[in-house]
Write a structure and sequence with these properties.
The chain is mostly helical. The protein has one domain: Glycosyltransferase (Alpha/alpha barrel). Helix content is 50%, strand content 6%. It has 14 helices and eleven strands. A three-stranded antiparallel β-sheet has the order 3-4-7. Strands 1-2 form a two-stranded antiparallel sheet. A hairpin with a 6-residue loop joins strand 10 and strand 11. Helix 2 packs across helix 14 and helix 11 runs antiparallel to helix 13. The chain is globular and about 55 Å long. The structure holds 1-deoxynojirimycin (2 copies). One 1-deoxynojirimycin binds next to loops.
Length: 461
């Protein structure tokens, strides 16, 4: 039997991903708007509202809302987003009352902060939530619903009473302090967290300006500027790598190679960069980002047995970082590749192809050359200093190779997926089988976002 095409498979999987994703939103017994990281309640227990995971899920629901044509479907997505807004405001209050503050990373589904020991604070959470809710606010403003935005999302009053404002105030004051990384393990300053904090502040400033809060806008922009200086310090010129964490305060030290750096350039998993943000500080085609992506692909390729070219499976399965010991159940084991991150790498390549397609030029530098050399096919005959312009056949070949590379990452995820289209947190590094928390929300959100990006790419002439 001929194998189903990737496009046909994506279509089928999208429908299933949406169903699985929405099952994790306001599940029975939870407060409306709570989103569980996974339905798994033991080994491991992921039945919590993680601020980071939930923010990415909101992003996917907003996309579903924007794409939906039928009023009933739009209404359903809309209600879920509003539940999320109310729930988020509620847990902000609870975290402040509980004393841990907005950096509290996870909540019981009834809306109270997790009480056990945990890596706190995790400051990427409020930043992601602010970014995604700002996107929601922009959507609503475009629909002419400024009243609703002011009532529910952003209000100038201080102390902050609205959800976005609270996250922005927290982020603007808190960013200089170290926090735990998005993997919840390392205390220090993180590229991922900082990129998202900056993005939240820049977008928040634009929103504040639109809503007549210019003083706040100025303050947020000032903080964003300062963050830019800190972000530039993550480049390690010797290793030609953007390192994930600086000023690490916990043991054991890490090498700094971490897939979060690439996920960060997707803005979490956000698709389009709204004009709101102006020029990205680290766009996907930044030479340092390209060099980092190349180093990561090489590292994970040789780290995991399932990536052995002799096995002949398309793409590369991507994990968190090479020293990872968490296998989805326990932390004294060995780490594995993750579907959500492998999907994130697909998205990275699509976004890169889009960006080059739009700008019409590709500049090759000594720093980014290794990235292009590793692309499949003969896209590689390039020299530093060269600029490829649209119309040059090599330009078309590179853009095409990027799209195919993205497809290879998705084909990899497909290869290891369960037959019913479900995905867990991890894929065993020896066998590829799904393991760890079942039905991880982030997998489905990432899948919906990445495939929408692919659709954009294919429909752009
Ligand atoms: C331990 C892992 O190392 C950490 O990254 C993860 O967030 C938690 N377990 C989740 O339970
Ligand atoms: C472990 C991951 O390291 C973390 O980023 C995530 O938030 C939790 N699991 C929940 O999915």
């Amino acid at each position: 039997m001929a194998e189903e095409s990737l496009g046909a498979w994506i279509c089928r999987e999208k429908a299933r991903a949406e169903i699985y994703l929405l099952r994790n939103v306001s599940p029975p017994g939870a407060l409306p708007g709570a989103i569980v990281a996974s339905p798994s309640r033991s080994n491991p227990d992921y039945y919590y509202h993680w601020v980071r995971d939930a923010g990415i899920v909101l992003r996917a629901i907003l996309q579903l809302y924007r794409l939906a044509r039928e009023p009933a479907a739009r209404r359903r997505y809309f209600d879920r987003m509003m539940d999320f807004v109310d729930f988020s405001r509620h847990i902000q209050d609870m975290a402040v009352q509980g004393g841990t503050g907005l950096g509290e990373p996870k909540f019981y589904v009834k809306g109270t902060p997790y009480t056990g020991p945990w890596g706190r604070p995790q400051d990427d959470g409020p930043a992601i939530r602010a970014i995604e809710l700002t996107h929601l606010a922009i959507s609503l403003l475009e629909e002419g619903r400024e009243d609703l935005v002011k009532e529910k999302l952003y209000e100038a009053t201080l102390p902050a009473r609205s959800v976005i404002k609270a996250d922005l105030e927290y982020t603007a004051h808190r960013w200089p302090a170290p926090c735990y990384d998005a993997w919840e393990e390392v205390l220090g300053h993180h590229f991922f967290t900082r990129i998202l904090q900056r993005k939240a502040l820049v977008g928040g400033a634009a929103l504040a300006t639109r809503l007549g809060d210019p003083g706040a806008a100025g303050f947020y922009l000032e903080q964003a500027r300062s963050l830019e200086g800190e972000l530039r310090r993550h480049w390690d010129p010797e290793r030609q790598l953007l390192v994930s964490t600086r000023d690490q305060q916990t043991d054991p030290p890490r090498s700094g190679l971490d897939s979060l750096v690439i996920i960060a350039t997707l803005g979490g998993y956000s698709i389009e960069d709204h004009e709101l943000y102006g020029e990205d500080l680290y766009p996907v085609n930044h030479e340092q980002v390209l060099a980092t992506a190349a180093a990561q692909k090489r590292t994970f390729q040789s780290l995991y047995p399932i990536n052995d070219p002799a096995r002949n499976i398309p793409g590369i399965a991507i994990g968190r970082y090479p020293e990872d010991h968490y296998d989805g159940y326990r932390t004294d084991s060995i780490g594995n590749p993750w579907p959500s991150l492998t999907i994130g790498f697909a998205m990275y390549h699509y976004k890169l192809a889009m960006r080059y397609g739009r700008s019409g030029s590709i500049v090759i530098t000594p720093t980014n050359l290794p990235f292009f050399q590793a692309l499949p096919g003969d896209a590689a005959q390039l020299d530093p200093g060269e600029g490829l312009l649209e119309g040059d056949p090599r330009f078309g070949r590179v853009v095409d190779a990027l799209r195919r590379e993205g497809d290879a990452f998705l084909a990899r995820v497909r290869h290891h997926m369960n037959p019913d289209g479900s995905m867990s947190e991890q894929m065993n590094r020896f066998t590829g089988f799904q393991q760890g928390a079942a039905h991880l929300s982030m997998n489905y959100a990432a899948f919906l976002l990445a495939t929408e990006m692919r659709r954009h790419l294919l429909s752009t002439p």
